[in-house]
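Risk register update: the risk of archive-format incompatibility is retired. Evidence:
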Amino acid sequence: MSLAIFDLDNTLIAGDSDYLWGQFLVDQGIVDREHYETSNAEFYRQYREGRLDIAEFLAFALKPLAEHPVERLHVWREQFVREKILPILLPAARDLIAKHRDAGDLPVVITATNRFVTEPIVGLYGIEHLIATTPEFSDGRYTGRHVGVPCFQDGKVKRLDEWRVENDHALADSWFYSDSHNDLPLLSRVGHPVAVDPDEILADEARARGWPIISLR
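Archived output:
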């Protein structure tokens, strides 16, 4: 069975769930607007430019999880998914996932965005296998820290390799769909790399390497 691996943000959805979650927190008055909005925008800019310090970003992004009870976080997350995520789901993404399932491939999402934010989004596409950055959870609360290797850049390769060992899958005949040049380490490892609505750097790299470029928008 081949793997059909998908990035999430700006690939299966028409936006970035990490950034949108931050904006949701701002809009709801859960975090300080001026500080959080400015920092969120700057981190997103660094991500797009390929210079994000993932440890610094995670310390920022996971802090709100540690400041509120899990029950309240889940209520906010349901509202977030309803208001911010449902409108940016992509019918063409559903069709692509279905095409791979019909071919006997196993869909997997791999994303740098943390599991708290992404798990319900991936569930909307009916995908059971999610590899994501993992927030630390202890004594019934999030701690604001992460555990394990962040699922970002080379970390995606490491996390996928760990998952493959546990689940007995190879990469040689697998697919990986992504929009971002941050995913070049993993795109370079799979048998079938595909650039999806790619950023400029990835688009240039895909053309140079003869990789397919598609749009799900």
